[in-house]
Amino acid sequence: MSLEKPHPLALFSLVPKNPGAWDVLNHPSNKHLVSVVVDPNDPKKFTQGLNVGFHSASRSESRYTLATLGRSGADITVGGAIISRIHCSFEIHEITEAVMLYDRSTAASTQVFGESATPFEPELTPRRVVVDHKTNLEFGIGGVDCNAVQFCIVWHRRDYSIGEKPSIRPDNPWTARTVDETPTINPTRRVTRIRTTKNKTKIRYLNRGKIGQGSFGEVVKAMNIDSGELFAVKQVEWPALQSHRYISLKQEVETVSRMSHPNIIKHLSTQLCGNKFEIFMELKHGNIQHLIDNDIFINDFNLAESLLRQMLQALDYLAYGGIIHRDVKPENILYKGLPDGSCEFQLADFGLCTLAANATEYAGSGVYMAPELESHDGAPQTPKMDIWSLFVIFAYALNVARFRYKPLHTLQMRINAVQAAANGGLRCIQDMAVVNPTLRASAADMLIKLFAGEGLTTPHKEVWYDAMVLDTAPATPRMQQVGPVGC
């Protein structure tokens, strides 16, 4: 007799769509998984389904397997000669915890159907797709058309954790995988940067919502349908050839594709989708504006010091390559929390970057722009513009000399506020706030002064370290030298 309702730990149920599926539900070996569920075709009615979730351990040795379907040794028994011993499986992605449907049949005879279907990508192995409460809600197995046995997937829960799953059973001959079952620990096919025409497979993904607005584009959180991995996608409307936006987009893609630094965001891949150009990037926990809004740096000087060191290393890397970012601001510095409580910071959004030799036009974000950008005296733009911007970020993040509350409507107001912070609580990095860019410290200068050259890209012998310009006060403690907020 079936349960009156799905098990509390069941994530979803498989509801039969054809006679072959009803035979599976009524198989004696599957009785313990059957419960009453809401009819997917009529919410006012009820039917029966096979519960899949964390309520029972799978016969598979992988703790990430929810259930296997197959002819022999599977969690859900499916009879018939056209069914492989282990035909398909539902598995949890070990990092993102997305539910994946794997085709493990010898004849590749598992497929998804319906309006929400995103069929298996034929060129990818292993054959797998994400299933969730909106995507791939019907599937079939067996036969040339993969429709000998067809189920609807009816979801019961959207919030779950792999920690709810019971421990797997000990290894023994009964729980061993069958010969034709592909191991679930197959390496994930990771998205790689497109450099040539060899990679023709389009990246398919589910939009998980907007997470930011970059220069010329929107950034969304996305899940790869074929791998279950999460990443960020910058979506930019494809601009007219030779337009300013086209040149900026081309500049960003080409610049970042050449870079390799732990504190600069990586472009994993790019593709054209309709009228939008898409840039795939690693997904981070957020940008530091969120940390600033919650006064994290004010309360954790060690984290502030780590941010300073990592951003100086990133800017030194850019400067040595002759590149100016030109839009260094909190929204363009991403962070990822690490297990030890520290953070990895990365500089992102290179839509306004340029080679120092070519930099002449006005660019950047108001409060953070270096004064030379507004002087209109024809002075060349240099990577030291980014150093000024980084100093302003710290004045703002630590609210030194009440920086957040000062009027910043004009260039002179901004200079006055920055100088007050430099002469107050940020004396340890005041060389970054010199109005004259010729006398302003470089990223390499500050790395040598504060961090003994740790992470330096510029060869030490090429750093014009001028003791007359750079304050030679003891380098440690560093951010701990910051005075009380509002000093």
TrEMBL record:
It is an enzyme of class 2 (transferase). Keywords: ATP-binding, Kinase, Nucleotide-binding, Serine/threonine-protein kinase, Transferase. ATP binds at K234. The keyword ATP-binding applies. PROSITE patterns: PROTEIN_KINASE_ATP, PROTEIN_KINASE_DOM, PROTEIN_KINASE_ST. GO terms for molecular function: ATP binding; MAP kinase activity. Its EC number is 2.7.11.24. It catalyses: L-threonyl-[protein] + ATP = O-phospho-L-threonyl-[protein] + ADP + H(+); L-seryl-[protein] + ATP = O-phospho-L-seryl-[protein] + ADP + H(+). SUPFAM superfamilies: Protein kinase-like (PK-like). Residues 205-452 form the Protein kinase domain. It holds the Pfam family Pkinase. CDD domains: FHA (cd00060). The keyword Repressor does not apply. Transmembrane segments: none annotated. Belongs to the protein kinase superfamily. PANTHER family: MAP KINASE KINASE KINASE SSK2-RELATED-RELATED, MAPKK KINASE. This is mitogen-activated protein kinase. It comes from Emydomyces testavorans.
